[in-house]
């Protein structure tokens, strides 16, 4: 069974976290929610608390097939953390999928992982991502090898379905799409 980690820090964008968790689980992918805080209870940017499965400090990481980074107001605190940048680097260098939405591609930029890549982000993060990426795109979801980036909360469904397609194939994504009556 495929397995993905999703990192949650205080101020994460709830839609950008819960939508991928839900859609990946519908596709049969095990999703482990990981608090990057000192406590498993993490509060999103809109005040919604989520109880994570594990703490990052417990040493989680491998063996997983994907790392997911939601954006939101808390992104700035994550991109300055060496442990989070190192985890993202380990996934990319290991040929694993790394998916970042909204402002979260700035974490990858800070880790040096956008060099030579095509990426997108939330419009407010454009300059920062554009400075690090080879090519900045305004497409809603951008796949470049093992890197998947997306624009923001309004693209969370497409982002999650793109991640399913990347991990399990187009047919698996289409099956989930039809179950949730997503637009094409």
Provide a concise account of the structure shown.
The chain has helices at 14-26, 75-79, 82-93, 105-110, 126-132, 156-168, 170-180, and strands spanning 3-8, 30-35, 41-43, 49-51, 54-55, 66-69, 97-101, 118-119, 135-136, 141-144, 147-150. It is α/β, with parallel strands linked by helices. Strand 10 (141-144) and strand 11 (147-150) form a beta hairpin.
Total beta strands: 11
Radius of gyration over C-alpha positions, nearest whole angstrom: 15 Å
Low-pLDDT stretches are: none
> How does the overall form come out from the CA principal axes?
globular
Note the run of SSEs as H and E: EHEEEEEHHEHEHEEEHH
User: Kindly state the mean pLDDT as a whole number?
Assistant: 96
Would you give an account of this structure?
It is a single chain. The chain has helices at 14-26, 75-79, 82-93, 105-110, 126-132, 156-168, 170-180; strands at residues 3-8, 30-35, 41-43, 49-51, 54-55, 66-69, 97-101, 118-119, 135-136, 141-144, 147-150. It contains seven helices and eleven strands. The protein is an alpha/beta fold and 184 residues long. Helix content is 36%, strand content 22%. The strands form three sheets. It has a seven-stranded mixed β-sheet. β10 (141-144) and β11 (147-150) form a beta hairpin.
């Amino acid at each position: 069974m495929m397995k993905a980690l999703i990192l949650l820090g205080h101020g994460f964008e709830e839609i950008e976290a819960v939508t991928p968790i839900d859609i990946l689980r519908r596709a049969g992918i095990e999703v482990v929610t990981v608090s990057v805080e000192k406590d498993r209870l993490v509060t999103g940017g809109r005040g919604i608390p989520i109880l994570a499965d594990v703490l990052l400090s417990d040493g989680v990481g491998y063996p997983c097939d994907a790392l997911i980074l939601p954006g939101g107001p808390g992104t700035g605190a994550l991109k300055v953390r060496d442990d989070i940048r190192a985890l993202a680097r380990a996934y990319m260098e290991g040929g694993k999928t790394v998916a970042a939405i909204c402002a979260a591609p700035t974490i990858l930029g800070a880790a040096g992982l956008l060099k030579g890549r095509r990426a997108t982000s939330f419009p407010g993060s454009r300059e920062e991502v554009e400075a690090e990426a080879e090519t900045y795109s305004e497409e809603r979801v951008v796949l470049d090898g093992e890197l998947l980036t997306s624009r923001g909360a309004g693209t969370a469904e497409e982002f999650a379905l793109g991640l399913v397609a990347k991990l399990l194939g187009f047919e698996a994504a289409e099956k989930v799409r039809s179950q949730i009556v997503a637009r094409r």
